[in-house]
Specification:
Shape: globular
Structural class: mainly beta
Number of helices: 0
Strand order of the largest sheet: 1-2-3-4-5-6-7
Distance between the termini: 24 Å
Strand content: over 45%
Largest sheet: 7 strands, antiparallel
Number of strands: 7
């Protein structure tokens, strides 16, 4: 099935860290779909939003590293997207 859950319709300008957020346009507003060139502990990657935000500050997400899915969450700090893997998933 792959990591992508939401369609990708429109992007915003690159952030200060060169990450580009892509959104799905819905009637109720836009939903984050993926972030290209997102900074991760593994280098810049395409990170896919996997679900609706579980808190006000984070969105469940995943990326691929050496053929494996790494799950974690996306945060937007200082208007720049960042991916944080869950502990123990990046071995």
């Amino acid at each position: 099935m792959g990591l992508k859950k939401y369609r990708t319709d429109a992007s915003h300008a690159p952030d200060a860290n060169n990450a580009i957020a892509w959104y799905a346009q819905w009637v109720g507003g836009q939903t984050l779909s993926l972030v290209r060139d997102c900074p991760t502990p593994f280098g810049p990657r395409t990170v896919y939003a996997r679900n609706e935000p579980d808190t006000w500050f984070s969105i469940p997400a995943a990326c691929r590293v050496k053929g494996r899915d790494v799950r974690g969450f996306l945060t937007c700090e200082d208007n720049s997207w960042e991916f944080h893997p869950y502990t123990g998933t990046h071995k």
